Amino acid sequence: MTDTSVAWSNWAGNQRAAGIEVAVPPTESELAELVCTAAAAGRRIRPIGSGHSFTPIGMPEDIQVRLDRLTGIVRADGETGLVTVRGGTLLSDLNRALDALGLGMTNLGDIEQQTIAGALATSTHGTGARFGGLATQVRGLELLLADGSTLVCTPEQNADVLDLARVGLGALGIVTKVTLQTEPRFALSAREGSGELREVMAAYDDHADGTDHFEFYWFPHTSKVLTKHNTRRPLGPRAGTELAPLSRVRSWWDDEFLSNTVFGATVALGRRAPRLVRPLARVAASALPPREFTDISSRVFTSPRRVRFVEMEYAVPRAAGMDVLRELVAAVERSDWRIAIPVEVRVAAGDDVPLSTAYGRDTVYIAIHTPPGAPDQPAYFTTFERIAGDAGGRPHWGKLHSLDATVLGERYPRLAEFVALRDRLDPHHLFSNAHLDRLLDA
Known about the structure:
Blueprint: E1 2-9, E2 16-23, H1 28-41, E3 45-48, E4 63-66, E5 73-76, E6 82-86, H2 91-100, E7 103-104, H3 116-121, E8 138-144, E9 150-153, H4 159-165, E10 174-181, E11 183-184, E12 186-196, H5 197-202, H6 204-210, E13 213-218, E14 224-234, H7 248-272, H8 277-285, E15 291-296, H9 297-301, E16 310-317, H10 321-333, E17 343-348, E18 363-370, H11 377-390, E19 394-395, H12 405-411, H13 415-425, H14 434-440
Parallel strand pairs: 2-4, 3-4
Antiparallel strand pairs: 1-2, 5-6, 6-10, 7-11, 8-9, 8-10, 12-14, 12-15, 13-14, 13-17, 16-18, 16-19, 17-18
Helix pairs in contact: 10-11
């Protein structure tokens, strides 16, 4: 169950730890025993999902706990759509299992290799002006607390904890089970193509409000964007929707060869020869041909990501979104930076989840990326963080930022309430680490 003196790194490779203890308990009772033993010894435990966060939020100091053996659906109600799943379940496995049950997630991010507990902990979201992030789909959860007990949280039982724990940063306890509100399986009709940045920005509200799930990618050093319009289609014997997925060859060519193999090669070439980044950006902006297809929602929401990068994403009020992007574009254009990876722009409805990045306001998400260790990353990220901060931006909890508890308390109106709950459930901060200390303790 436990390995000692293990080395660990996250997906991007920018967070590393050596000489740690890694536990993979096969049962909840053994997980509880591990927690009690660690607490008695004054050691800290950090739960980890798939390591897709770019910040040190999952960095272990003493013991790292993986829920790799606590996976799968516990119960599913086809009538209500309520599905209870164990916290270590990968979203990819959950999506396949739900599809077999005739169900689907209302919204998803673009990566499905996260665990459900890890994705919720960091406020993972997708896109869509009428839709919230994953946390808005939570209807209950079970928390293993620092004293080894399990706290069941539902709208009827410990509702105050459920309210705050939907995005819990892994700071309240270990999420062993989650109950999700799913819906009947549906399809998405995808329309993808190129556009001009100025035109797409000028018509942004029309795009965002006129399509169920809209996003676009700006290629720095060019005026080009890739747009994605995804429209929801019902499935079922009377729905009349016919699936028209990409052929296996087209899917491989677009999503594996062009988006990963070729793109990865151009990024690597740009790192070896920085003077080529800008001309390569113009090539990349025109490399992906337009396409239209209709497929099961989870196959359209998500896509493979094999090119490693580091990322910063800020959630800004929707009304300020295009102004923030406009300032970022201007900053890139007047700099000598060489930015090889597109900027991603998404949208989400405001929600009532206290630590959600979209809490209380409709939101535009702007995400910037560089290869790990890129020389322009510090200046690029610092500049964007200042621009987004001037608009009251909130950083994605799993993506790079420099904010601490003092500033975060200004951006999240209920952060103090969350910290008070953490101190009640975990008074000795068993589940914390240095990064969380900085985020939560002023």
